[in-house]
Design goal:
The complex is a heterodimer of chains A (418) and B (249). Chain A is an alpha+beta fold. Helix content of chain A is 56%, strand content 18%. In chain B, a hairpin with a 2-residue loop joins β9 and β10. The radius of gyration of chain B is 18 Å and the shape is globular. Classes of the chains: A alpha+beta (418), B alpha/beta (249).
């Protein structure tokens, strides 16, 4: 016969008894467990939704490019009334070139933009046209899924070439992509262009704008051939990429003083441009998402706490009901620790079984949410593990007081209890 | 644990219970209420003692102290050579588990557990493996004639049968001493006789038995009758020395 240590056989016997006790009053055990089930389910579900939101914000940020500034022209003064930023073309390509010389700046792309009507065969589409230089693609971290980007020489000679976003391709060439758009002739605002490449899909911006609904053409082409020519060489905005997060504030200062100087703006006077730190805006959006995710988790944790209190409540009832049983057990040799362990095991078992059911429900809920709302959810093993260990500790924490109450009973009084 | 009374045991037959000048008082709002006043008793190994007396005479309190469920206010209690007052709580639990077997008036079986598990329960706290627990419990259920019912539950059998199960449970850890508190109090006279027959045969096997009873015909099964009145022993048929201090004799 194999030899089992006394502690092990005692413990396994107690586990069996705890399991038995759980089955003795099934409805009550189930209702007690329900608190844990709902608590853990809520934590798992909320964390899945929160982490999903966080991840989608992060992806939008990396889609935008990193360490970015955008310098917008305007706001110009017209007799005291200010109009919207970007209205007056106060920035030009020479400003962009000068910015490129600044320390800490690794990329500059002057951008002009407008709306354009695009036609291919019998299809037409209205979309945003971005006129910029080849560098723009690097700064935005935007690649091509097919074809080639345009080059510096295309910008110099204002060739009529275009890079199409995914949405534009789908609307001009059909959803099923049986026509290869590369090399095809399209018309933008009546003028013929050759499709040079198709842009990678970027998805939506944080505010839900479709970044793929766009066409990129060389800056000079846009200036001279698409949007007329108010002031030669002017641009609506300049995108600036800094080397790293550390130099962001330095670059911002340098941008302001450089442009003030170039635009002859006296100190204290209103400038005709504005510098926006896109990364800071994006980071604050990410921070918001993270806070929301934490908040959701915290609210869900409250239900875990309530579940724990439910366990404590029912364990106290159970100790009172089984006072006589406790007396009998003490009379035949149970130590205080044995009684304590027995009730503690019961509480832990209820919370762990409840927790397992809660995890199943939470994961199922998260999958349903993602199926029905298309929202991104992330079920991480970490969140499941956290929920599980918190539930187990709740079992110990809220089970301890009733168990100790049982262990401290006076055996004679317990035996007399009716 | 101090080994006490070694010299006594050398000279005479070994004593299982030695109680000297035992006092017990309960604290009430009106002050201390004495229940036991200077009780002295020696029970030798193999003895069969019936404790009698009216309600409130202190015999139940005395039994609780003998069973290590309660502690005396003053005086000494030496059980099987060990002074109970010097033991830690866990050691007392071990004594209850292994030295003493309890039989109660109300049987005190666990309603949820099968007869087999009820009998095997003390072995859980002794740390015995499941196979051995069940094997030993089966042997004892057979001994009390209930092996057919071992998977039944207490509410499915009669009172007499329940008391047999309780006796089997008391015996499962091979105790030196059986303490029975009115073991036939809830049973009819025929069944009582059956239960007492079991105690008689256990005593013949050499187990020391102390039982509390109201009924003289039950008490006559024992070799020795000890009568309590008003917290004192007033009559002891077995030993003259243990009642030496009593003025009622």
């Amino acid at each position: 016969m194999h030899q089992v240590s006394p502690e092990v056989s005692m413990f396994s016997a107690m586990l069996g008894e705890a399991w038995h006790a759980m089955g003795a009053n099934r409805l009550r055990t189930f209702l007690t467990m329900l608190g844990m089930v709902i608590g853990v389910g809520a934590v798992v579900l909320m964390m899945a939704i929160g982490q999903g939101a966080e991840a989608s914000v992060k992806r939008s940020i990396s889609a935008m490019g990193s360490h970015l500034f955008v310098v917008l022209s305007g706001p110009p003064r017209m007799g005291g009334a200010r109009t919207a930023t970007g209205n007056a073309p106060s920035l030009n390509v020479r400003d962009a070139n000068a910015i490129g010389e600044l320390y800490g700046v690794v990329g500059v792309a002057p951008v002009t933009m407008g709306k354009g009507q695009v036609v291919y065969a019998s299809n037409n589409w209205n979309t945003d046209i971005i006129g910029t230089t080849a560098e723009y693609m690097d700064i935005r971290g935007w690649g091509l899924s097919a074809g080639y980007p345009f080059s510096a020489s295309d910008t110099r000679s204002a060739t009529r070439v275009a890079l199409l976003g995914r949405t534009v391709v789908q609307n001009l060439f059909g959803e099923d992509e049986d026509v290869d758009p590369i090399g095809k002739k399209i018309r933008i605002n009546q003028r013929p262009f050759v499709v040079l490449g198709v842009l990678d899909s970027k998805g939506q911006t944080l505010d839900g704008r479709d970044q793929d609904d766009t066409i990129i053409v060389p800056l000079t082409t846009a200036q001279r051939k698409l949007f007329g020519n108010q002031l030669p060489g002017t641009v609506r905005q300049i995108m600036v990429q800094a080397e790293s997060d550390n130099v962001m504030s330095m670059v911002e200062e340098a941008l302001n003083s450089l442009l003030n100087q170039r635009h002859n703006i006296r100190e204290g006077a209103d400038s005709d441009f504005s510098v926006r730190n896109l990364t800071a805006i994006a980071n604050s959006a990410a921070e918001t998402a993270r806070t929301m995710s934490l908040l959701l988790g915290a609210i869900a944790s409250v239900s875990l706490l309530v579940g724990g209190i439910g366990i404590m409540n029912i364990m106290l009832v159970s100790v009172t009901e089984r006072t006589r049983e406790i007396g009998i057990r003490m009379a035949i040799g149970a130590r205080e620790t044995d009684i304590l362990m027995q009730f503690l095991l019961e509480a832990i078992m209820i919370s762990i079984v409840g927790c397992l059911i809660g995890i199943v429900i939470g994961v199922t809920g998260a999958v349903l949410v993602s199926v029905f709302t298309q929202a991104e959810v992330i079920i991480s093993s970490a969140s499941v593990l956290i929920a599980f260990s918190v539930a187990a500790s709740i079992g110990v924490f809220f089970g301890f007081y009733p168990a100790r109450k049982a262990a401290r009973l006076n055996p004679i009084e317990a035996l007399r209890y009716q | 644990m101090a080994r006490v009374g070694r010299e006594c045991s050398k000279r005479m037959q070994k004593s299982v219970i030695e109680v000297h000048h035992l006092y017990k008082a309960y604290q009430t709002a009106a002050g201390d209420f004495p229940v036991l006043k200077d009780v002295n008793l020696q029970v030798l190994a193999g003895d069969y003692v019936a404790i009698m007396g009216p309600s409130g005479s202190g015999k139940s309190t005395f039994m609780n102290i003998l069973g290590c469920l309660d502690m005396p206010t003053a005086g000494s209690y030496v059980l099987d050579g060990y002074a109970v007052a010097t033991m830690a709580a866990d050691q007392v639990a071990k004594v209850r588990n292994q030295t003493i077997g309890f039989v109660f008036q109300g049987f005190n079986l666990l309603a949820r557990a099968s007869l087999l598990d009820n009998v095997a329960l003390p072995l859980v706290y002794a740390g015995v493996s499941k196979e051995e627990r069940h094997a030993r419990a089966r042997v004892l259920l057979e001994k009390v004639g209930l092996s057919k019912h071992m998977h039944s539950h207490p509410n499915q059998i009669s009172g007499g049968q329940q008391q047999r199960v309780a006796i089997a449970r008391a015996l499962v850890n091979q105790p030196r001493l059986i303490l029975a508190d009115e073991p036939t109090g809830n049973l009819d006279s025929t069944t009582s006789e059956e239960i007492m027959a079991i105690f008689d045969s256990l005593n013949q096997e050499g187990i020391t038995i102390v039982l509390v009873t109201h009924e003289t015909d039950i008490a006559e099964h024992a070799k020795r009758q000890v009568r309590f009145l008003d917290g004192k022993i007033v009559q002891d048929t077995g030993s003259a020395s243990s009642v030496a201090g009593s003025e009622y004799v």
